Amino acid sequence: VTALIAQGKDQGLDMSLLSAVLRINHSQPEEILKLARKHRPSLQGARVTVLGLAFKPDTDDIRESPAFPVLRLFREQGAVLTAFDPIAKPVEHEAMRGVTLANSTLDAVRDAEIVVLVTRWDEFRQLPQMFKNLNLSPLVIDGRRVLSPADFAVYEGIGR
Q1: Cβ burial, residue 107 (10 Å; 0-12/13-18/19+)
Q2: Among candidates 44, 98, 46, 52, which has minimal Cα distance to 72?
Q3: Which pLDDT value is given to residue 92?
């Protein structure tokens, strides 16, 4: 992203829009934390699941993954963390310190009080049915606006 800004400046382009997008992207983890605290002011001991560790779906690329800052912020608040990604398994990454890596979406959400969707994997669209089948109603924070708020008892979406 930094390279894109430099390239744009080299070509004489106004980079204010790209800079604004970058500022918004960097503020997303704090926004997610803010939405969680709206429902649970203290996150100490909260069971939080982060879904999606890859930078984007259908890849195992974790470079600049938006999940890592989210995990760090929740860890700083004392949350008990679980994460799942269908392909990416970054067990050695610093951001995964103290995070339980689940084997499936079901294992990841079964005991969660808060579920944060970070990457748009198609299988995460099955959450409403999964929650219904298991009689679960965690707070769902949809960081990608791919889920319908009407499908969840407690829903927060970035930009909604």
Answers
A1: middle
A2: 98
A3: 84
